[in-house]
């Protein structure tokens, strides 16, 4: 875990000449070490790497691309926003914070799923800037690509791996996020995301 980082690794992450994205990749690899994607053995790191690649197709902003690499470390590991700010600065911490749900870890996740998604959708519609929206699109497009692949291999059994088991609720969530991200509808990533939602959830 990042909280147990060796002195040597801390030194490597603080070396100014090491490119920003490489520092973010090292940090994310350590934070997500040993983690896998839900329901399979794919290393979790594959997801933030894909998200970063999607963001890189939309912008050359290196801080935003690095934030995509780091977007799940606060939400899903013991890393804090203070640590992100320490190693990567205030702007990247801002973007990572904007992509992090309040997991309410004192409650069962299946009880908080709906309110967490409602909070995300409201934030994207009312408060998020374009950069945060790019991160959200990259995150959700990566998820939809994975879901579309799994639908073809195991069908609706895949929904059993999630805290929310109802396929229709996932369809509602992904469509609402697509609507919240309409500012990005001219990007190929949004169009791909929209198409995958239509295919997976059999929208007209």
Question: Can you offer a commentary on this structure?
Answer:
By secondary structure, the protein is mainly α. It has a single domain (2-200), classed as Hypothetical protein af1432, CATH 1.10.3210. The protein has 11 helices and no strands. The protein has helices at 7-14, 20-31, 46-58, 62-69, 73-76, 81-88, 90-98, 109-126, 130-154, 167-180, 188-200. The model has no long low-confidence stretch (mean pLDDT 89).
Brief summary of the model shown:
This protein is 65% helix and 0% strand.
What is the secondary structure topology, with strand pairs?
Elements: H1 7-14, H2 20-31, H3 46-58, H4 62-69, H5 73-76, H6 81-88, H7 90-98, H8 109-126, H9 130-154, H10 167-180, H11 188-200
Helix pairs in contact: 2-4, 3-4, 3-9, 4-7, 4-9, 6-7, 8-10, 9-10, 9-11, 10-11
User: Helices and strands: which structural class?
Assistant: mainly alpha
Provide the succession of SSEs: HHHHHHHHHHH
Q: What CATH architecture do you see?
A: Orthogonal Bundle
Instruction: Please state the average pLDDT score.
Output: 89
Number of helices: 11
Strand content: under 5%
Q: What is the fourth-level CATH superfamily?
A: Hypothetical protein af1432
What's the CATH class label?
A: Mainly Alpha
Tell me the number of structural domains: 1
């Amino acid at each position: 875990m990042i909280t147990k980082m060796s002195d040597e690794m801390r030194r490597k992450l603080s070396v100014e000449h090491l490119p920003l994205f490489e520092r973010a990749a090292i940090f994310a690899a350590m934070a997500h070490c040993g983690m896998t994607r839900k329901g399979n053995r794919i290393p979790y790191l594959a997801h933030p790497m894909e998200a970063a690649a999607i963001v890189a197709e939309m912008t050359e902003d290196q801080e935003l691309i690095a934030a995509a690499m780091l977007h799940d470390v606060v939400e899903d590991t013991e890393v804090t926003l203070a640590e992100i700010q320490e190693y990567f600065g205030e702007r990247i911490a801002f973007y990572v914070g904007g992509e992090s749900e309040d997991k309410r870890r004192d409650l069962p996740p299946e009880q908080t799923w709906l309110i967490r998604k409602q909070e995300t959708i409201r934030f994207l519609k009312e408060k998020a800037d374009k950069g945060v929206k790019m991160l959200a699109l990259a995150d959700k497009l990566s998820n939809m690509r994975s879901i579309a692949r799994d639908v073809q291999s195991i069908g609706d059994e895949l929904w059993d791996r999630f805290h929310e088991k109802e396929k229709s609720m996932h369809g509602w969530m992904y469509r609402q996020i697509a609507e919240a991200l309409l500012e990005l509808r001219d990007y190929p990533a949004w169009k791909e995301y929209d198409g995958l939602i239509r295919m997976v959830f059999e929208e007209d």
